[in-house]
Amino acid sequence: MKSESPILFDNSYLRLGEEFSRRQLPTVVQDPQLIHINYPLANYLGIDSAWLASDASLQALAGNTTLPGSDPIATVYAGHQFGSWNPQLGDGRAILLGEVVASDGKRFDLQLKGSGQTPFSRMGDGRSPLGPVLREYLVSEAMATLGVATTRSLAAVTTGERVFREGALPGAILTRVASSHIRVGTFQFFAARDNTEAVKKLADHVLQRHYPEALDAANPYLSLLQQVIERQAKLIAQWQGIGFIHGVMNTDNMLICGETVDYGPCAFMDTYHPETVYSSIDHHGRYAYHNQPAIAHWNLAWFAQSLMPLLDTDEERALQLAQQAIKTFMPACNGHYQQLLANKLGLREASEQSATLAAELLQLMSTEKLDFTLTFRRLADLADPAAGPGVEALLQLPASLDSWRQRWQDLVAQQNLAAAEIQALMYRHNPALIPRNHLVEEAIFKATYDQDFSYFERLLEVSAKPFDYVPELAKYATPPTPEQVVRQTFCGT
Ligand code: AMP
Ligand code: MG
């Protein structure tokens, strides 16, 4: 039987019951206009392209109409924000339209972000200015092409209405796609209320949906905890490996499925420094670059704590199991990170020597104030002298790196790999074209104040091929000049 809806919804989260969400329709907006649609992603999700190009789709993506089968909800959660417990959060400016199952059987949430107030909006207006929508679109799609697990961006529209922040700004709505939006904070919400039945219901849902292998384990809930820890260990190592700073790693911004979520005040680091912070609200550097693994560890401890009643009926034993699992996070994260660093340096396997070499390089980069992305990319150029000049015109390595380079080349040579092979490995792990913060800001500025979306479109296009540098793209690989440096990023809340 042919469905009447262009999107085949199946809303398993809604079926979990009333304590997990509230029904909430998006707010109707005045004059929606399309900014961008991600057709490849839509195609993967089985959404008809012809329909997507229609006005009917624009109205649905703006929240003005509800498609058959969609049963919009705002989900509840709690969370630790900058270390402080907030027992009542929830989707305050996002509405889950429902879930779709892709052609390969994977299930995804379709969510509108910036689509009006919900019962969880507290003092907020439920809206989003255009800037944060464009930032999330650009950075989440870049992360996906860089091979990092992430929520995706399916579409962005402007609302034709103004949103008031520091002044009046154009409003916009992002359609976000995630394997699910279930957070550490979702578990915390029920655990904090001693609602073990709900924690179990949620854990069973997550097991079915994201970790079906764990159902066969002797203790499925312990296996769930272990696997969430493993996915986060890999994720955070990847962030570190590309110089990504999330900016607001609250427990409500950590997804159980292991995807990066909530591109608020995030940025890719330009000049390398371990203490780099961009977020305007992170006054103490809690979410600085070098703290990201420790913060993930802290957040996961809260996840473990929430699962405790399910780990064992004996409290002592449950605590022991939780602690044992949590202890594995740092070594696992560091293991992934060292392997990535080795690959970034053209070494197939991590070793004590590769770790030392990488640490020395980072120290030199920090002292010399070198650009994180370009330094690694320049080393990749140097791996095969027969190759072209690469990014040489954009960054030359200072003489203070000469002795390090000699030791690096010696270690690389021990592998008996062809120079071209080593270079290929390095190029695969060292992007040249990340959406740099000053370019994201430029794209946002042009769209917001000149209604010129061409900068956004171009940056999106260039970021889609992060590893393919050609000199014509120099603008996109060049670090900001001192005047262009963006010192702070804003959540846009
Ligand atoms: P975030 O820091 O973006 O993860 O948001 C934290 C919490 O604040 C979540 O519960 C959001 O739904 C809520 N929130 C953020 N911005 C707004 C807004 N403009 N209106 C209503 N709620 C918001
Ligand atoms: Mg959030």
Number of alpha- plus pi-helical segments: 18
Would you list the SSEs in sequence order as H and E?
A: HEEHHHEEEEEHEEHHHEEHHHHHHHHHH
Mean pLDDT: 96
Question: First CA to last CA: what distance?
Answer: 43 Å
The main pleated sheet reads as: 5 strands, antiparallel
- Please state the overall shape, judged from the principal axes of the Cα atoms: globular
Bound ligands, named by name, code or SMILES: adenosine monophosphate, magnesium ion
What structural class results from the helix and strand content?
alpha+beta
DSSP summary, beta strand count = 11
Using only C-alpha atoms, the radius of gyration works out to: 23 Å
Summarize the model shown.
The chain is α+β, with helices and mostly antiparallel strands and 493 residues long.
